[in-house]
Amino acid sequence: MDPDYFKSYDMCWGTLGTVRPFNNFHPDRDVQEIQAALQTKDAGTLVRILTNRSNAQRQDIVRTFREKTQKDLNAALKKALSGEVEVLLLDLLMPPLEYEAHRLQKAMEGLGTDEETVLEILCTRSGKQLQEISLAYKEMYKKDLEKELKGETSGDFAKLVIALLDKEDVPSSVQRDVQALIASLNGKKADVVPWINILTSRDTDHLNNELETGQAMEELVEGRFSGDVQLGLMVLVECIESPYAYLAKRIATMKPSIVQGLMVSHSEEDLLFIRTAFLKLTGTSLYTALQQKQFKGDHLQALLAICRSED
């Protein structure tokens, strides 16, 4: 870890992220070190610098590198590195909104869709954030995110996904909403429409009140729905109850793409909360768990630097 990290720690005290702005930041000096590291393929130095700078500071490094060398830092990293550490450092160089758009694109790429990654992003981001991610997606891929999601999904699941993408908070009565949800289950076939309409259009406090009325929402969803729409509703209910517990459960799979995606995505926002939820869920700190699994070498060191410390 960069020894000056703890000097910057106090500067941002109170943040829920683990990666904070570096206090003694000089992009010219960083670029000089990065140039030397690229020539010798010194992944350790690249990891040390890029995991100890905020995303805004990394964008300054990218611009300064281009000004000083007339080259693209992403291309230079691809030439000097390979494997998982290359992918992780390239992820860190992406602006946050572009990174979420990138994760959505990857989830829809190729045969089959990674439904849970799509749901994770749609369920844990606000309506305003999703609008911004949609704009970033269009800028990056010259495609409309809503149309892409419609093309990758179908039926009731498609309705749920699009409702999540376009969600906005609408005030309503908790009691009336709960009655509508229960009523939707009384027929031979459960009606998913009220569940989609209510669970994607109420603020979190309102929905948490619904979930505290004694109705076991997960049991209702599991018992009356099936397939992708069941998965979508289950993820949505879990995220309403505790997004951090849901994200910790995702990380606990220890699948490299999930661990890396979530840690980069939440490193400056709320990774401390996710770490706390992970410890509660597994009985082990995330910092320790990373060292017990398949992560190795510079890739492991980069993940540990983002995680930052034991709990």
TrEMBL record:
SMART domains: ANX. It comes from the Eukaryota. GO terms for molecular function: calcium ion binding; calcium-dependent phospholipid binding; phosphatidylserine binding. SUPFAM superfamilies: Annexin. Gene3D superfamilies: Annexin (1.10.220.10). Keywords: Annexin, Calcium, Calcium/phospholipid-binding, Repeat. GO terms for cellular component: cytoplasm; nucleus; plasma membrane; vesicle membrane. The keyword Repeat applies. A pair of annexin repeats may form one binding site for calcium and phospholipid. Belongs to the annexin family. This is Annexin. It comes from Pleuronectes platessa (European plaice).
